[in-house]
Design brief:
The structure is a homotetramer.
Chain A (H helix, E strand, L loop, with lengths): L3 E7 L3 H16 L5 E8 L3 H11 L3 E3 L3 H5 L5 E4 L6 H10 L3 E4 L7 H13 L4 E3 L7 H11 L6 E9 L15 H4 L3 H17 L3 E10 L4 E3 L8 E3 L5 E8 L4 E7 L8 E8 L2 E6 L5 E6 L9 E5 L21 H16 L11 H20 L3 E2 L5
Chain lengths: ~375, ~375, ~375, ~375
């Protein structure tokens, strides 16, 4: 008999849509031990949540997210709300005995994140954080290659997440309000590349040695304002920072919404004694690998198309070689791993939980402190 | 009240899967006038078809495809079988008054294709052929730019579809048997790029001026054979040919399964007096455009990331800018257009029907004749 | 004591300049057994040739090229004139006992080429043809890899030389006049890629199976004409053709001056059972290599930067790794090999002589015949 | 009558060779008001300097560089020695009334650099510093586009110079000794990209907000040591730092000799409100430009091949379009501009003098201070 996992989703915006799609597709493409059921969706707007439920096939819709905690049928709660409510919602669900999958960054503040980590430690439910890019096949292959020693002693980590939608004409949506979002590009984008750097290297950051946080556009038009009323945009447009890893690597990170020319360039590169790796989400199916142990005559960056069933992570589930996959597939791949874990199996690659995401949040915090104090910050000082 | 389109699918292999996914997703991402219902799937293997129906949510499964014709509830029949049965199945369904969407190439032989075109002309149902690459947003944008005069007088069409899975170790699957497949790389891959060339240029081929069809690997191990028994691989591994378009352009086409290094390089380039375009499926979200009317000082190939909602075809339906889409999205986009047509609306771009695909089939035939006779073949000679 | 090679140059246009630069630089960068002396330059225009000699350091200038034959001091004659006088000048110099290095294509007509080959066979001087692209380090590495079996059984050769300077606004220079140039893009560009294909594969073409030669722009303004007087442009703007190699490979060739967007895209690709290679002059320092014997998990096109001294052909002579070289360096590298041969040493790679270039000329001829007769032409029919 | 510029060169290693080549070629390719004469070369090794003079055509060779100061015939002295003697030699030559062109970085220490700037201010001779990359045509075009407002308000500067030759097997050459080189990757590579950033933006750095300097490989084998004796490598292998520009831009810089996979990736990118630019020396003929004022539908990074005579800086001097140039051409282009200035003409683009290079040296110093003190350093504190 088919085993199911009843899912409740809180939030119905961009991430609500991406996650709904993942629940819809996962059991079609993967053999998962639990089949997800789109049980309940909760959001603030009555009409909106009903329309969303109708479209995506959620069985129930509600504007009262706390009802989910009380519903014994629900196994997994997926938190896709703005960052300022992650803690409240996640903790409530953990206390109700649910498994919780929360969007990144873990929280709006380090204090909230710490509370979430603590709640997770006490809970019987499992926690997950949607660092979806770990599940791009090229990133997963990179993870494997690092573990196989193909990079060797790591010298450099070079990570940047460049977008350009935050120009002066973009209105004051919630992502530009500090009280809702916690931060700007930093929590939205640096969170991803810090996670990727920690995940790929398996190492931890010991110091942020310098940082800059800048708000270039300080006022924006309020959304829907007919008179062009403007409000304060008080989150960072960009945060860049430098860091050291415990085993010695030197790292740089940059997140920005004003990198004209780049729409979604989530980039990471590792350079080591035995080899090097680089990946850019805009060509997400490709991993570039440089094998430094190859004969110098024929050594070169290799363009690895990570779509080959039987050879590349998650590729069996999808299409023939080089019939490329896209953004949404990272979520489906991650959902498959979550369902494996909830069904008692191993994920293909480690999944980030609240404790893990808390470490990423500490690095976010350290970068802001370094920018604020214009000096280095040791991670041991960030609690 | 919601209007539905009951769909029947014949075939449950690669294309059956791609199409099922499209029916599953289309009404989630697009506002379509008809909602597709996964009504019936038919395939030869009882157990297989039931498992497939269960996984994908088809309401009924059958091993007798002819039953579909008799079921008045079914509106659209989707033919995803090997090429040698396209004609029989499509014609039966057209005669039963169904709309038919058939996989490409239209048929295994020109004779079959001609019969299908004739049946379509008499039928009240509409016909569609799954030339899915027309619906990649970058291709759709290319189509628009050509029509806006951004290419000008066309000099060159350069099209190739390079794969490499057909090496000597690949077993003798149906795609290598002439009686099942009709042809090899030619019908499988050249069909796509001939369609793209005809679609983008809006012009017709008047002559194939030379061609080569080659079977490099003449024997292959039979699938499942324990003793390594070998059989004859009698389709082309590659077909290359040259052609002229009515308005004067010079064109080359190449399809091969032995282009070591390329997995799915479906490529087309147009060079004209006012500009040039090129596209490669392996970077399907990108269109490269060269504006020849730009100042020579700053002119250059532009890398257009065709993912911007409000600006690029089909992009509104999907994710934020540069959150890239993949292979399967071409099918979803095409399904949206099919449902628009069946619901009385306009497709975003012209859809290929049997009459249109028959013209592509004629070019396929002309190329084989040119290769066989080692001389030019005028299209007027190919009936 | 230093041994010298007295050089005479006929022609002072584009190639005269490129060759003068090569003679100037070669002994600075290479240890060559003979030092070239810029002895005499000959050209039709008295004032022009004197100015050229002055600028480049040629010791003597003359408008009477035949005087070179009579000058016993001159060892090597370098023919850089339009194609229609290659035969007359080269044969005269061979008969005078000189070594001759002639620009490509060998001649304007096959008849002339045949006479040149015959003269070379009887002469005591050595002959060379300036197929300079063989000496790009990336091409030279490709040559070595093919010989080491890294490509295996060859399936495909895909060669094109795409330029775009031949639009309707380009005036009627000698390159557009058949009586001067012999052909258009064909002799100018296809000559290069036919040579590259023959050189890299080590195989010979046995049949041209189809071809198209097209003159899109049939009239052009005469250079210097104040009244805009127009004359007939009677050479091909493009020639594309298909061919078979003796050992079975299927090949395509394309040369055009109307490939909008490409300025100098001299491209060749080989796909074989063991690997694949591709090279584009616009990134001339790079060779892309795909090793098909690598583990499928990490196989990919390798970007080999062919600039590493001690590892890559000709790289010792130049700059540190990835301090890239350009167009002119192919000529310098070739001049080094010519001087090695004249000094009794081995060239790094085989140099094309008149007999070799005659084979390329036969393929050029076969392609034109195939285009003219709209049918295949066996090479054995082209004498 | 021809006007000449008698040049003396001090140093005969890598840069001595690159500069000799420039003097040899410049008057062949450019119409310069002064023709350079290779008058005297000085270096420490008697036999070496004589061989060098012989090969490159220097009229005289000496081991006593001070003699140059006493030779009235010499106009321009070119200093290509290790960084620790730049000051002594340059100041001596300025005091002797010579024009001086010094290799970069200006000096080994800020104190030396300051003395050089002061000497230049008092001297009647002109000074130049060999920041050769300014003269790559693509960089020069970038400079022009910035000035034309095509970038608009500048948000980001992203500069890195990635090499990989500094692995543990590389012996202890002078570049790894602090007393000779002053610094490692920092002075060698960051000097270039700081200069490029200052040159392109026309803005000045006001603060270095954080930095890391790291020596990963602390011991190396002494060159020529048979017993494998090791010595201390006491320069940085990498220096990364963050900075702010006066007009608000946020910048990052990275120089390293351990970026496995990159041989000479000198990279700079600017993102502004109106557009963006990026350039990588490994494709030095290309400038990538993103016009943010273009219609979003067809906007994209443009690959501008900066080789078109009549349109691109310095391109007239060289070969036809896309017949690419290489590393050495930056030096030739710069030599042309130096000769223009010495001959009373304008350079095509501004040339860096000692005062200008001193500003770059101050930034180098600030970065080291920031790394040492683990805190931000205002440029006003670096004198």
């Amino acid at each position: 008999m088919e085993r199911v996992c009843n899912v409740a989703l809180i939030g119905q915006q961009f991430m609500g849509r991406a996650h709904s799609n993942a629940y819809l597709k996962v059991a079609k493409f993967f053999d998962v031990p639990l089949t997800p059921v789109l049980h309940t969706v909760a959001a603030r707007d009555q009409e909106g949540v009903e329309r969303f439920a109708q479209r995506w096939g959620w069985q129930q819709a509600t504007t009262r997210w706390r009802e989910i905690a009380d519903n014994d049928a629900i196994n997994l709660v997926d938190v896709c709300t703005p960052n300022d409510v992650h803690a409240e919602q996640s903790i409530a669900m953990l206390e109700a005995g649910k498994h919780v999958a929360c969007e990144k960054p873990l929280a709006d503040t380090l204090e909230h994140a710490r509370a979430m980590k603590a709640a997770a430690a006490k809970a019987k439910g499992k926690t997950f954080v949607w660092f979806n890019y770990r599940r791009c096949p090229a990133v997963a292959l990179a993870y494997q290659l690092v573990r196989e020693g193909r990079i060797g002693r790591l010298y450099h980590v070079r990570a940047s997440y460049l977008q350009s939608w935050g120009g002066p004409d973009t209105p004051l949506v919630w992502r530009f309000e500090k009280k809702r979002a916690g931060s700007g590009a930093h929590g939205d984008l640096n969170a991803h590349i810090i996670d990727l750097a920690r995940f790929l290297t398996g190492d931890q950051i010991t110091e942020v040695t310098g940082g800059i946080a800048e708000t270039f556009i300080k006022e924006r038009v309020k959304p829907g304002s007919k008179s062009g009323e403007r409000g304060r945009s008080d989150v960072d447009d960009c945060v860049v920072f430098l860091a050291r890893f415990k085993q010695g690597a030197v790292a740089s990170f940059e997140a920005t919404r004003l990198a004209t020319g780049h729409q979604n360039a989530n980039y990471i590169e590792l350079n080591g004694s035995a080899g090097a790796l680089r990946w850019n989400f805009e060509d997400m199916n490709l991993l570039w690998f440089y094998d430094n142990q190859e004969d110098a005559r024929t050594a070169g960056w290799r363009r690895i198309m990570c779509t080959s069933g039987g050879h590349h992570p998650y590729a069996d589930a999808w299409w023939p070689d080089a019939h490329i996959i896209g953004y949404e597939h990272g979520f489906v791949n991650m959902t498959a791993d979550i369902l494996r874990v909830l069904g008692g199996q191993q994920p293909l690659l480690p999944l980030p939980d609240f404790a893990d995401a808390y470490e990423t949040q500490r690095v976010l915090e350290a970068a802001l402190l370094a920018a604020k104090h214009r000096s280095a910050v040791k991670m041991s000082e960030v609690k």
